[in-house]
């Protein structure tokens, strides 16, 4: 059973339960963060309780949590539970969906801490703190519910031990607390939060030159440079500029991240992640200029 406490290894989990938690686990994955935070930053003030500065703070926390997880996995080098790389066979699943199922229900690499648990605690916690949507207690409760669900899902689908997710939740929450405090709390000093993410990424890359640590370094560096160059420069969004910014950021950033994962070369990951985060921060300004030019031509 390795280093941790496995709670489902000897149990026969019903197939529908495994499928349900495989879907839940997607809430703690990088693609979901990428889509959600990119949209939040692009739309900004168009969403009640959200500003681009607040969205950028959550992005900074996400980058730092990613770097922290990557570095600690390389430091601790704990193996995953047996069978973590093999998805249960679903006889009823269409062949075209098998690759998606295998991606959702399996995991490779080292196991401690759980990246999904760490990221969920940090990112959803940061969103609950930074975004002023609805009542504060409701935001906190919703964030806690998602974090618990994602952490539990990793154990149920058999890709983590219980210890992995408990450490991950504590680590993500602790990192968020440090960043929140050092970034001025409600004042949300985005540059400081991004600088902290970059510091963590540099330390991780200095310890281990791996695809994960170097990619995390590229993302953190891109965040720091992107916010310095483009943060606060775009005018307040309109529905048109917000939509254009969201499409630009998702297409460019998503494509670069997908390309880096497919290549699995540290240098490619570094460049792709860096440019992707810069693209997210640059998208609102680019969208404003594109829409402005289109209006001039149509006038």
From TrEMBL:
Residues 55-180 form the Phosphatidic acid phosphatase type 2/haloperoxidase domain. Keywords: Membrane, Transmembrane, Transmembrane helix. Pfam families: PAP2 (PF01569). InterPro entries: PAP2/HPO, PAP2/HPO_sf. It comes from the Archaea. Gene3D superfamilies: Phosphatidic acid phosphatase type 2/haloperoxidase. The chain crosses the membrane at residues 20-43, 55-72, 110-131, 138-159, 165-183, 190-207, 242-262, 268-291. PANTHER family: AT30094P, SPHINGOSINE-1-PHOSPHATE PHOSPHOHYDROLASE. This is Phosphatase PAP2 family protein. It comes from Halosegnis marinus.
């Amino acid at each position: 059973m390795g280093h941790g406490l496995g709670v489902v290894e000897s149990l026969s989990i019903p197939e529908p339960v495994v499928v349900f938690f495989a879907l839940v686990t997607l809430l703690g994955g990088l693609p979901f963060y990428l889509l959600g935070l990119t949209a939040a930053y692009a739309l900004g003030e168009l969403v009640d309780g959200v500003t681009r500065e607040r969205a950028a703070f959550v992005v900074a926390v996400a980058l730092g949590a990613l770097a922290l997880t990557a570095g600690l996995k390389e430091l601790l080098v704990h193996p995953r539970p047996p069978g973590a790389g093999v998805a249960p066979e679903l006889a009823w699943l269409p062949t075209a969906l098998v690759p998606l199922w295998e991606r959702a229900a399996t995991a490779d690499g080292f196991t401690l801490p759980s990246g999904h648990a760490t990221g969920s605690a940090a990112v959803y916690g940061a969103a609950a703190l930074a975004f002023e949507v609805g009542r504060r207690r409701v935001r906190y409760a919703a964030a806690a519910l998602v974090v618990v669900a994602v952490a539990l899902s990793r154990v149920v689908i058999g890709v983590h031990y219980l210890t992995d997710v408990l450490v991950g939740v504590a680590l993500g929450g602790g990192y968020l607390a440090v960043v929140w405090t050092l970034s001025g709390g409600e004042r949300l000093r985005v540059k400081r939060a991004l600088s902290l993410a970059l510091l963590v990424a540099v330390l991780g890359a200095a310890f281990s030159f791996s695809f994960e640590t170097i990619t995390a370094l590229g993302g953190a560096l891109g965040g720091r440079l992107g916010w310095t160059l483009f943060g606060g420069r775009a005018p307040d969004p309109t529905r048109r500029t917000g939509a254009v910014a969201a499409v630009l950021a998702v297409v460019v950033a998503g494509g670069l991240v997908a390309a880096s994962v497919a290549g699995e070369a540290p240098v490619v990951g570094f460049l792709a992640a860096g440019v992707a985060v810069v693209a997210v921060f640059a998208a609102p300004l680019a969208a404003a200029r594109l829409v402005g030019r289109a209006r001039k031509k149509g006038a």
